[in-house]
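Progress against Task 2.4 (sequence-to-structure conversion) is shown through the following example record, which the project officer requested during the mid-term review.
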Amino acid sequence: MAGQAQVPVPKPGAREWLMVVLGSLVTFFFSYYIYGWASLQALLEEDGVYLEVCQAELEEPCPERARHMIRLFTECILVTVGSSALLALVVDRMGPAFLSLLGGICQAGGLFLLATSSTDSTDSTATPGTRSPLDGFVIAFGLIGVGGAALQVQAMKLPFVIPRSRFALVMTLLNCLVDSSSVTPLGLYRLYLAGFSRFSIFAGYGALCCLLSISLAVCWRGRPQAILKALNAEELSAAPDVPEQEWENMEKAMDGMQNLGARPRLHGLSLRQQVWSLEFAVAASFLTTQLFRQSAYLGINKDWLKSLGDDKTGNAFALDALGTLV
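Structure tokens generated for the chain above:
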């Protein structure tokens, strides 16, 4: 608003770049690794999870067991998508430090449940654990969905705390790491094949999640949070300068990206105005495609990969990290 005192934006430093490193690690290891479902399913099945639902111990394939596995994947995806929409609103009120803690706690809790849960307490081959009246694996993947969404949403705030000339680079990096996180279950499966137990793998993974997410939350306090507040104040003060009836001409009013004071053309607009924009249409189309891929179980169905002969090559496709990244 004209005449209103502007809050000076603190200058980013080494601490903010350390946050980018921590945020990149958290995003790659703990955001959307559920998309590497084929390897997770193989690990759980080989450890005897849901083996008791099969008619015969060596029955292969086991439709009932596959149904349970698909239920876990579907539940996690639905929770992830729903949580992402809600947490995107929460982050503006509570801040990214809160989401980092929330995501770390939920993600680590889900991983610890994966480490200790057992579907059949009489099965000597399964990892020892306590059997709950509720399915521990269902609860685990629900927590993983919330945790992954929270960590991904808070990561999208990291590009705002670094120099604006590096905004696009860091934002692109983080978005790529979200998709690349699907490769991390391959590493977990390799550890299992190397002789590590399900408990040691997921408990260790959960401990690493706690360490990184808490460290990131601590780093958000102080100057990074002040940078976000100053940028929000700058955006809000600039919004009334553009008349609402001329919102469609906002892009022409901008000086261009070379003007460091310019804001993206949708900033400061109401939700109704943003919904009718080209950017919203592109985002909606992308999300619809993603939901279809997830609901159709495409590209991550272990049984489908086996039907193509993957089991005869030692799960070579499921273990191909490069192929998963592509």
